[in-house]
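Contributing new records

If you add data, match the layout below exactly. Sequence lines come first and carry their own label; structure lines follow with theirs. Keep one chain per record. Anything else will be rejected by the validation script.
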Amino acid sequence: MAQVYPSGTGPAPAVRRRVRGPVRALLAMLLTAVVVGGAVPYMSGGGRSYLSYLVLAEQEDAAGAARAGAESRAAGGQVVQEYPQIGAVLAYATGAFADRVRARPGIAAVGATRTAPVVGPPRALDGAGDFAGGTDRGGRSSADRRETADRQESSTVMVPDPVERDAWNLTMVGASGARTGDASAQQNGPAGPTPGALRKVLVAVLDSGVDDTHPDLRAAVDPKASASCADGRPDARTGAWRPDPGVGESGHGTHVAGIVGAARDGHGVTGVAPGVRIAAVRLLGPLGQYYAENIVCGMLWAADHGAKAINNSYFADPWKYNCPEDRDQAALIAAVGRAAAYAQRKGAVVVASAGNDGQDLGAARSDERSPNDRVSGPAQSRYLGTECIRLPGELPGVVTVTAVNRDGQPSSYTNYGRGRVSLAAPGGDPDAGPQGAIVSDWPGGQYAALAGTSMAAAHVTGAVAVAAVLHPDYDSGRLAALLATSAAGCPPGPYACGDRPYFGAGMLVLPR
């Protein structure tokens, strides 16, 4: 059970990861500013303050979404997006909206997705809201161009073009084309699938956006499968999936995408699955948040466009952990859970980072930074029970990934937990310099070295693509099981497998 303590009291805090500085507060106050990169300002609400809500019907289908929408409107809400795949809607409202809708028949849950109000719902966008969309309306323009955190992982260190050298992370997982001779290498037989074979597989990167003009990613990102879900509505306008340079953390998704599928061309970096098609799905909103509606939208978009893996290297805002005894947070768990289950039924392996707090997810823990969308004042100090979960990583069936360093040992920052994590993969060490971190792509044709469980998750997403080529008839459950059975044993030392709280099934090795 979550207990709230005044700031400075209660249990000693765990390692805190993501610094939210004054820039975040400034962004939150400038709600009506027009920002670049496809972000949508909010409509004027006539002086009123609105919250966004996910409304879930008992019936998890289009009829349920219609019921949720009708009850939301009857209670004075403005419905801005329907999610017929899971029987839910996104609505904006004022006052006691949630209590009114919760009392209506056929409604399963209602939850506010934010704590800081806005001046109104997002403005209408031509073409937004269509999950069947994805037509490239204008082609690509050559002129377009996470405290240690889940989003900005470690402090960003820019590096020169690595020319595909010293890819210790690829060697560790047995990726084809990796440089041999690293002490951490796994011996895994012949090279994997060709880029041509991988091209038949689509994986989705749900993140801060992907720069598809980067030389390593030009051929990888599929514009017809890419979109922005930065306000909970799918927006497939050309370039909407690209990072917004006006929002912090915006380069993170490009870095993750490079680990998954950067081209093998003698320049830059090589991904785990070079040749794979990437659906770039931007979740990071104009205020720097990954709200639950953004996640729901992204999961449904990726699933409906045929993704075999969905990479989630973030956690849901504004609550770092969501607790089911809170009615709002319970609704967010249910909504994201429905979306993840829908994606799994459609054949996608949902992959998520375990997080960078150095916490045992299977034990009571503290949360010193939620809610993170407040515009003033300190965060609450919450003491959390084991029922409080990180979204989407602790949902049923999600492949949750911890991080190891170059020596194959658990990284100091990685979350862990017996029965709470699935696999370990290279995440690097932020204190070991670029050679000990994961080097990957960065917007504007650049390269950066980051360390974190975000990077580890990206390796697993690439591995799912490899597995899907080898076994095109496998569903999401069999693909995830294959990665578990292909995993290597844990290294000797103080963090050896034991009950596997740091490794789950073991260390990622690409299936052959």
